[in-house]
Amino acid sequence: MEALSISASGPLVRELAVPGDKSVSHRALLFAALAEGTTRIEGLQAGLDVLASRRAVEALGAVVQDTGAAVRVEGRGLGQLAEPADVIDCANSGTTMRLLSGILAGQSFLSVLTGDRHLRRRPMARVLDPLREMGALALGRDEDSRAPLVFRGGSLRALTWTLPVASAQVKSAVLLAGLHARGTTWAVEPAPSRDHTERMLAAMGAVVRTEPGRVGIVGRPRLRAVDCVVPGDPSSAAFWAAAALLVPGSRVTVRGVSLNPTRIGFFHLLQRMGAPVTLTETGTACGEPVGDVSVEYGPLQGIQVAPEEVPAAIDEFPVFCALAAVARGESEVRGAAELRHKESDRIDAVAGELRKAGVAVDTCPDGMRITGGGRLSPARFESHGDHRIAMAMGVLALAIPGGAQVVGAEAAAVSYPGFWEQLLGV
Ligand code: S3P
Q: Which CATH class is domain 3-19+231-424?
């Protein structure tokens, strides 16, 4: 794809839906493969990351069919997956690789996971260490710290594992391995991370114990197939909220979004910046609270983001920083070192992109300081192969007089196929 040129063409006044939640979609597919019976999944997100999870469960012997309105997965049952005939390619998807690692640790056959060059750079020791401690053979490149990863598991011991960082992916890998172990496996977290795994496994019949600071799972349950309607992705809705705040006169409502409290930290940050953002719960789907997100254009004030606010907004920092660039005064994010280990190093990458538009940004190991409110200059942004940076810079372009270009805009398809068409009406 050539560089995409983006500029505002008047206020955005829209009501819309966004694709299904990525985290819930991965789990719906992966857990359906472990269940007894057939799972019907409606609203499964169609991005490249989720496709990687679909291909993975197919490689492990689950049959996945599109029925038009939904996707049906015939489960294999816990411990009943089939040895894959080839290496499983997780593409760009950290969720596929890390959650699958927990599942594969519980299987007695050999499996190998790889991914694209971005994923092969991301830290994996945090997942392999507890799995090895539970008794699985779990190896990786670079002293067991990076993919490709190799597993031969089975006969796992239950474990209490203290996570080095708040990470839903690591927590999920430990709990999924724990499903295959005798006894109760605990994940102790330094701060709460998204809890979709706990919600979905509990709905499927697993015994999940949630206590302050830790979550446990009782091993070897019978998991039953539970149909799922995937709610809209709050991380995708975030780009629409930002677009509304960048173009004067805009008013956007995104319907049917997951309002899971572990996922909506970004909207609370916007409220602290003075943005008129309303969250209205309307029901539940897939065990998640669901509702509408409404945002109207309004001036923004820079804020300090505290470390404890980071986990519930972790995927939204690229777009948060884009908004901080137009907000009046300084914004600062701290306690967000994890951003350096996402699809790209989101601290250095976002800082570099904002500077191209003339924004003053200082980085530090665990965050950055942005001085907002200055005049933005036209820029040629790069996505760094990172879907969220592509979309964050794409919406920032709406606030730049004369617009901007995004190189590598096609990365958006990882989590939001059709984003550019929906935004630009092309
Ligand atoms: C995810 C967890 C988060 C998030 C990622 C999706 C998940 O990562 O950044 O995009 O679905 O579990 P952490 O494992 O670092 O929390």
A: alpha beta
Count CA atoms within 13 Å of residue 186 on its CB side: 10
- CB-defined site of ligand 1, < 6 Å: 23, 26, 95, 167-170, 172, 193-194, 314-315, 338
Ligand 1 atom nearest to CA at 171 = 14
pLDDT tens for 153-212 read 989 999 999 999 999 999 999 999 999 999 999 999 999 999 999 999 999 999 999 999
- Domain-wise residue ranges, the chain: 3-19+231-424, 22-219
- Cα dist from 383 to 10, 244, 340, 360, 405, whole Å: 25, 21, 15, 19, 10
Q: Ligand 1 centroid to 401 CA: how many Å?
A: 34
Are the folds of 3-19+231-424 and 22-219 the same?
yes
Is residue 426 over pLDDT 60?
no
| Contacts of residue 386, Cβ cutoff 8 Å, sequence gap at least 6 | 118, 318, 342, 343, 344, 346, 349, 411
Multiple choice CATH, 22-219, 3.40.50.920, 1.10.10.10, 3.65.10.10, 3.30.830.10: 3.65.10.10
Q: Which residues are catalytic?
A: 315
Q: What confidence tens digit (pLDDT) does each residue in 13-36 have?
A: 999 999 999 999 999 999 999 999
CA 24 to ligand 1 center in whole angstroms: 11
